[in-house]
Amino acid sequence: MMNRTLSRKLLGSMCGISNPRLSFAQSAVNTVQREKELIKSRELEKDEPRPLYMDFQATTPMDPRVLDAMLPYQVNYYGNPHSRTHAYGWESESAMEKARKQVADLIGADPREIVFTSGATESNNMSIKGVARFYKAKKKHIVTTQTEHKCVLDSCRIMEAEGFDVTYLPVKNNGLIDLKQLEETIRPDTSLVSIMTVNNEIGVKQPIKEIGNSYYQHHSLNVYLRIFISSISIMFLISGHLCRSKNVFFHTDAAQAVGKIPINVNDWKVDLMSISGHKLYGPKGIGALYLRRRPRIRIEPLQSGGGQERGLRSGTVPTPLAVGLGAACEIAQQELEYDHKHVTVLANRLVQKIMAAIPDVVLNGDPDQRYPGCVNLSFAYVEGESLLMALKDVALSSGSACTSASLEPSYVLRAIGTDEDLAHSSIRFGIGRFTTEDEVDYTVEKCVQQVKRLREMSPLWEMVQEGIDIKSIKWTQH
Amino acid sequence: PFIMALAAAARRCASCAIFSRSLSVPELRSACSYHKKVVDHYENPRNVGSLDKNDKNVGTGLVGAPACGDVMKLQIQVDENGKIVDARFKTFGCGSAIASSSLATEWVKGKSIDEALKIKNTEIAKELSLPPVKLHCSMLAEDAIKAALADYRLKQKDDKETLAEARN
Questions:
Q1: Computed over its alpha carbons, how large is the radius of gyration of chain A?
Q2: For residue A221, is pLDDT > 70?
Q3: Which one of A17, A19, A55, A458 would you mutate to disrupt binding with B, by most B Cβ within 10 Å of its Cβ?
Q4: ipTM, 2 decimals?
Q5: Which H/E stretch holds residue A290?
Q6: How far apart are CA A156 and CA A147, in angstroms?
Q7: Could you tell me how many CB contacts below 8 A there are between chain A and chain B?
Q8: Of A276, A312, A306, nearest to A291 (Cα)?
Q9: What percent of chain A has pLDDT over 90?
């Protein structure tokens, strides 16, 4: 035995020297190691402190209380909520229904109006595609804005390919839409209007209550008028064009707004609303769609299967995630006012300190009609990506071209009419429930320091100091 | 036993070779991770600043556009023998743009005008290991060098013309 192992070891070492196939393998192993080093260089070093998290619009850490609520459903009460025949299913189902009620309470809805989905992207897809396809016999027009989230814009593009007409409303320079323009754009064959509540890039809050209420007047009046007229028309056989109702459905993507500002779907007269779990300190991979029951919205389901969620979204509802979403909504409801005050104080501190310390900083978006936790600042004469690289121990995001795959700056900034060079210089600071004053102070200090350093390196700043007007120069295109 | 050991070793080699071949995936780096050299040039940029642009021996090249997010200003100082003795840059752009222009000033120093014209963007990109999405930064750096040299030549030609007129 000893001889065999010894001879094997000797052979192994001899193979290392002489066998060409093994040396090829060795070089391949070396490249693998080098590639692993490259991968490692993208992750944090061993003792490197983690960066400060100031990107609460991208995602939020899960509240520990939400984790506490979810954990039993991962390991103990793990049944499928749609299993009707045993206790595992029953307890899972009751947890799911409890979560549904918690979500509904946050937005002022009935639990029967909530459908669990995999996230706000799926909810947006279901709303736009579902409503448009269901009503496509008579209604072929969809209205949305230019500053919507990519999933809404992409769904609208798919609808255009399916033969629908889509109007992308422009926004004013402060990011808000013009209500009069919206009124004019609505046609008799409009089925859906989709406008997001709080923008994820600039934090602007749209006047959803005004839109909903102006619509609902058309909506409810014409629903009853329609019923009345149609009942008469059945008797007199009057053709359909008499009962032309502006039966327009109103969808809002409230992913960034739920749990942060008070929402009541009945006050706002909203028909569909998308909710995202991981934006309100809940788990990732879950969201919800609110679908009004009175008057009833019908949608064509996107996902077919066993008929779960009233046939609108088949598939097993992930009980632990749903419980997490419910817990996050309940916590958000209890702490909404406190969180709002906390975030407002910190955001004002951030903006005022930065603006006092360095000149030529622009706040993108309306200063009043906004959610304070999303601060988008443009630092003139400094490029966004270089500033992000300088602030490497703060996790931030930018609307600059270099950070997107193409060389185009963010479409939201372009839609609000920002100059192209300012669009390249924008940084988004996200503040949330867990941000502390020290974190904000540190960020401000580093930001001011790095902006000053980068401005020293910038030819545009130099030209401005010398009094040259940058807009008058003819630049060489490349 | 000897044959068995050999067979076992051969099997190990073969599996190792196949295993590592499947693991050798080429392009792992994405646009957001920076090479150490780019970070180094960015944190310790060489030759930031300005030279006197009215000086006869200084050529200034200003390329790019703020609308594209990249503006580079490269200045070179040339002595009587046609050799570049000093270079300075200022850039409005991302980390790769700053690194490309910083490297350009480093390379251009000590070269003659004709040698500096030969610097290619591919060399800059290779030195900094720029990913494909950032190659335009190195192209802009090459353009900046050429623009600075062209500006210097223009100044020298103007000087010679004024001298010739004065003589006449």
A1: 28
A2: no
A3: A458
A4: 0.72
A5: strand A287-291
A6: 13
A7: 149
A8: A312
A9: 66
